[in-house]
Amino acid sequence: MLELSRTVSYSGSVAGRVYSLVLNGKSNEIFEPAKEVFITNQVVNAKHSINHIDFRGIEKQGGRVLINVSDTSIPIDVTQTGKEVVVNFLNTKIPQQLMKRFDVSDFHSPAQVITMQQDRKNVRMTILNKGDYGHFVYQINNQFMVDIFPLTAEELHQAKLKKQVFTGKRISLNFQNINIRAVLQLLADFTGVNMVVSDNVKGDITLRLNDIPWDQALDIILTTQGLDKRRTGNVMLIDTKANLDKMEESKLKSQQIIQKLEPIRSDLLQINYAKAADLAILIKDKQNSLLSEKGKLSVDARTNTIWIQDTGTKIEEVRDLIKQLDIPVKQVLIEARIVEVSKDFSQDIGIRWGISRSPTLSGSLAGANQMQQAVATANVAPFAAAANVTPFTDRLNLDLIAAPANLANPATLGIALAKINDNILLDLELSALESEGRAELISSPRLITINQQAALIESGQEIPYQEATSSGATAVAFKKAVLSLKVTPQITPDNKILMDLQINQDTASPQTFNGVPAILTKEIQTNVLVNNGQTIVLGGIYTQDKTKTINRIPFFGELPVVGVLFRNKQVGINNNELLIFITPKIITNSLSITTIEGREKEVYK
């Protein structure tokens, strides 16, 4: 919409994506940098990608977000909602290493935190800002930029005027050179508003307003004439802006004089939830003190009470501030669950055999090293003991018995074959072992802490060891092998929980180094944003160890078919998996009571 001072001829034309408007024979192309990039109907044939993210400070305490994109045809949607600027890159993907939160508060711009996340087929960038700010977006080749800048007082005023909502009854006005006081009287009669117009309001006005709210018409009239309004109860006072500013300044000076003459009194302010010393520092702040020049304040730490001596007005201001700040701080219950699962499998197949000449011998299948030996003669009963019998272990030519790492006794099969005529004995023993194990260890630390306060819980042991001191003597030192959970929660305004987490699961190792015990550690450090009561997986570690060992006689062990008589094979598989879950809950009064009672019932059961 263009507001012209007079009626002129015009013509318009479209060339590509540019619209040209000609007024009174002179061409004036209207260019205004768009604050929003709208989604086009262009069909994207292939997925786009984001390659790099950067942030830089710019002039006037502003900040600039720089996004390197794969091409210039990415559809982008930019919206501003409250303190957030949300940029959606449609049909775009982002590398895993860029999907995180960037803290840019050190640049001293309105931008505080930038969050990058993959939302199905789109990438969403959220810029969290503070204070009054504006934003400006543009793209140069493959670089998309978002400028965040603070608003000046004038820019903020203009922005508020643009956002101002007018709800009055609609009215139409069409006057040429009418006295401004007459227009104000007309509006007062139309609305029934009590209106007082100063003698300084003078001049004529020409206006044509069609079907607009009366309060918008009044605002336009006052702005064009350098006037302003103030409300006192149900009365509207209209005067020049300069006079109203002087009136407010004079009123402020009068209040200051009254405060100086106001008598001094003392009062005690009981603090319930906050620390009285912290509130005292805030109240006595040098740059923005709530006390008057004669005011004094002190703290009694024992009773958590503030003693204040000042005027009654200042004491009430301090009391109102304390009512807003001295409130219960929200608490968070953090429950962690550490699950460690291990699976073991081992298999060992072995053989041992021997050929020897000996007296007539018979045996039984009694297993490894237990073959019964005896000599049968004409005068001796079978299985009778004989001194000249060669022990079974001494008759072995090849000994590759199954011997797994866990030292379990393998199952064996022993066979003694004898060729009586030639007195040749063949001993053969097969051994095999297969074992399978499964273990599951669940640790569940939990603790409660208040908002934005670090908390730590530990459970485990401290291992003592001796170490040398500077004097040459020895002293006892300790090393921790504990399960610990350290967390600092922060509750966001929308009841989400931002957590700084450190979880350790340390165990003692049987190995030592120079007498110092070794510690097996599992640790995770991360920052996460979680919904209230939501369970997320922080991370996991999966390891798999496979071993295969073959012991064999050179050359013979490599022969096909018969090679199995000259070799031993061991196979081992060890799987370990570690998963860490976390569940934060914001504690209300009812939840805290239920939690405590539930824990007590569990204990007394």
TrEMBL record:
Keywords: Cell outer membrane, Membrane, Protein transport, Signal, Transmembrane, Transport. It comes from the Bacteria. PROSITE patterns: T2SP_D. It is found in: Cell outer membrane. One of its GO terms (biological process) is protein secretion. Residues 193-241 form the Secretin/TonB short N-terminal domain. GO terms for cellular component: cell outer membrane. PANTHER family: DNA UTILIZATION PROTEIN HOFQ, PROTEIN TRANSPORT PROTEIN HOFQ. Belongs to the bacterial secretin family. PilQ subfamily. This is Pilus assembly protein PilQ. It comes from Legionella antarctica. The gene is pilQ.
